[in-house]
Predict the 3D structure of the following.
Amino acid sequence: MVELILPKERPFLFLILGNQQACHNTLVDNLISSSAHMVRCNVSKASYYEHVEAVNYVRNEFKKHTNKDLLLMLDIAWPKDKKRIWIENEQQISCGETVFICMSEDKIFNNTKIIVDFDCSLFNVGEEIYLGNAEIILTVTQIGDDYLQCVAKNDGLLKSGLGIASKQGFIKPSAIDIKDKCVKLIDVLRPECIVLSYIETSNDVIEFKELLQYENYNPIIMSKIECYSAIKNIDAIIDVSDEIMIARGCLAINVGLENLLFSQDLTLNKCIEKRKKCC
């Protein structure tokens, strides 16, 4: 369990979802011992019902032991999630190995291939593709009608569920299912703070705010900065957000480690200038 700290008046812990009640009891113990009173829950890793059950259990146990209400920071994939890869079996990838990204199972007969359902022409020869949190970095060496030939730049474990991104942004699935799940969770859990992941423009934030129309409910809207597109549009994103979160891991992958400090400092200075909180 890793403790993460926001501004002093709002310390919080990250909610680790799991099927074991002992995991949630440990979280409650850590919340009490650390004097934290907010829990952050990332909703991309489990089902709607698992999230509701876990959050309500932790809230109730915290209330029982402290007689205080536990605040909730809900981290949602809005307005898009990462497109994720599919393979039959996990396999170890070695630096320099050829990897194919294909749109159909029978297109390429190489053992090391990834099946996707996006347009491969989105990429260019020489462009880097990041799988997961850069567990594997691929460089595009050839582009076919419905496949990419790539070479691995590092060793890593290739497995299903890894997200796909490039420096141009995230490869995104349809937003319909994402919106449905997020709206239902917000309706039921009513978090005090909502973190919007994968924000690229101010329109992403505005669209969410237009959807979130409730009486007597006005949560903090925090935009997560984690890609090059967000840095390009940082002024407008800060203007329409209540607060900003810099996702340094994803941002470093997306803009390049050599550009991380500049991107972070730019965001921090803009937030100070506009009097917006940033973590």
